Each structure stands twice: as C-alpha cells, then as structure tokens.
Amino acid sequence: MIIVAGVAGMIRVAGSICGTLMSAETAVFLVIRMPMSAMLVHTLNIYPHRVLFNGDSPHHAISCNPGSPAASGPIVRRHPLPRHHSKGNMMRAARFYDRKDIRIEDIPEPDLLPGTVAIDVAWCGICGTDLHEYLEGPIFVPPAGHPHPISGESAPVTMGHEFSGTITDLGEGITDLKVGQTVVVEPYIIADDVDTSIGESYQLSKDMNFIGLGGRGGGLAEKIVVQRRWVHPIGDIPLDQAALIEPLSVAHHAYARSEAQSGQVAIVGGAGPIGLLTAAVLKAEGLTVYISELSEARKKMALTTGVADEVFDPRDGDVAEAVRERTDGKGADVGFECSSVPVVLDMLLDAVRPGGVIVNVSIWGHKPEVDMPKLVLKEIDLRGTIGYSGDHPSTIELAGSGKIDLSAFITARIGLDELITGGFDELIDNNEQHVKIIVDPRA
User: Tens digits of per-residue pLDDT, 399-415?
Assistant: First the structure.
C-alpha cells in the first residue's frame, strides 16, 4: 500500500512492507478496471510500513532520486554497510534488477563488521511489496543510478524482508547474543543517529527504508549481516513460523494504536493476510472479533484458524446491524480497515459504537469519500498506523506462548529456484488460496 501526495514538487511514497495482497473481492476489480498508474498505487494493499523517497515530479514518484530539486534541505549521506567478503565465498540470492527481472545469482557473502550479526537465513516470506516490485517496480527499490541516501545502494538489490535464521558469527562488541541462536530481523534501514529504543516512533524517521528493498542484503539469500539493534531472538519458535513475525508485528502495531482492551469487541474489514493477522492479534489479546469478507476461501480461513468469532458476508445482510445485534445495540468498540475499499470504511463508521475507535491499517491510493457527519456526530476516533516500532518483542511473546499459531497461515513452502513460478505467479493467479508463501533460500 502506498500514499502519494504532491507538495511543491515532492512526492512522498509511504508503503507497507511486510506483506499482503488485498482482499480478494477488490483485487480483481482494481486490476481490471483501474488505470495502470492508479492500479499500481491502489493495489499495494499490503502490510503497512512507511518509506520516504524524493522524486522529480508526480510522474517520477518512484524514481527515488535523492539529488532531485524536490529534495529540499541537506541530505545526510551514510556509508552503507559493506556487502561482500573479501574471502571470495559465494552464496545464492534473488536479485531485483527491474520490473519482471529478478535473477537467482551467485554473489559474494556479506562482510561481518563491528556491531553486526551474521545470520544464515532459514525461511523468508513473500510479501505483497515483493510481488508489486516484480510486477510494477522499481517502487521501493532505488532504481539503478539513484542510490538510497542511507544504504547508498540501488538496483540490483537482494530481495526479502520477512525472514528468520540462525546466528553464525558476531561482530566486535556484540556480547548479548550467541552463535547458534535463532532470530528474526526487524528489517529497517534507518539513519544511525535515530533513537530506536522502545517508545520511540522511529518508523516515521526521514528516509526510512527496508532491508530487502532499499539494500543491505535481504532474506531471499543464504546469508545476511545486519546491525545488532535489528536482531530479535525467538526462543523455541520454529524458524518457518518465525518468518511471519515481521508481518505479525505490523498487525500488533495496529492493535497498539487502537488502545483496545481485553473483553472489548472488534470488527475487522477484510480478511486478506493483513486482516487475518490483525484478527489473530486481537483474538490473542482477549477481544471478541468479527470479520467482514466476501471471499469464500478467506472466510473459511478466518474460521478454521480461529481468529474470528464470526464472519459476516456483506452480501447476506447489513454487517453493521449484525454487529449491533451481538452487542446489545451498542456496536463494536474498535474497527480495523484492512481493505482500502470505501464501502468497508463506511461499514466500520456505522458498526463502531459512539466514541469508538477505527484504525486504518491499509493505505489508500486514492482519496475516499468519508462520512464526516457520522464521524463527528458519533465522536469516532479515526487513527492511522504504519509499520511497527518496538512491537517485535511483544509479537514474539504472543507466538512463543502459543496464543497465536503462525503455522496456520503458511500456505506453501518453496525453494529459491521456484521463487517466480511457485511464488510470484502463484500469488498472482491464486491469491485467494494463500496467506503466506515462505521460501527456503538454500533449497
């Protein structure tokens, strides 16, 4: 998902990174009916994150040209982490060159530097952002010749940002981790002087991008080296399930933004991957969860995974009225918009109680009509959410304690050589049947 807004020639493209496709009932309509430029923006209905690029004009919003006239103010250039060993050891990686040009190549292994951690990647999920880079990119990937201001890299870059693995080596100064520990990576590229401690909104920092898109290696490779601050031990969580910790952290951040409490009632609009994982977090935190969804396959997934107490099909009746019937006429305490569909937002405004909260998880490629009179008269609190900040530890705890069974959301496992045919093509042709396809980069 991305938002495009033009101000004085500057385009800010804010996008989700960890992945999902939009709810099935809207995806086909958007692909077939919308102009290509609008489709590109609107169909990025994926796990929300934010990235800021500087473009020359509205037509070059994805050019990531940090040297353009639109890039007002000084640009602080950071030395990128060196990417390759001088020893000559090689590894396989999926490299994004351009639209529909992803190559499985042998590249040098990354260097271990002071303050960094070397990881053998076990599994990496394919997210909606990866898919849209393949179909319409470069979007978040800095195009060749236009390096990202923090990583210093541009295409070709190694892909993949939803991944797990095992520590194989520790750089100088790292004393709180051990070789052999299993971990996940919070895949941010953020300037070194940004405070990333708990409680800080570092996801909103200038020029933020993501490992696996903006450079610094990626999870669709056999090995990666990352800064210590992004490494999170996962304890006994299986490595395949741990590849979903990153998108689950996006859902957890949406829950945190809602300030929902155990015992309350939530209505989730859309049961695509982001909707399902948001529902999973809400259910694990003790809420009663209702979902509105059209797709038969996704309705079934919501019920079989246990993330929803009940699923409503809007074709069968008024969803908001159904919610009120189950809440003694009050309505839901919180709502989550996970579809980028105007009628879903309208339903949520109707379904939440007076004084309720709606969190917009999806990011819109157009300006929807919003029923402002209803929002005002009901004193509804409409909030945005993007990415995550300090959510990984809580998310790991939810998965590690068994409150969320991430295995239920893994719908396929493939090897790196199958990335296009068994991964991207499968998500394009059969997206209703999948929540998360994970890749073994060594297979």
Answer: 999 999 999 999 999 99
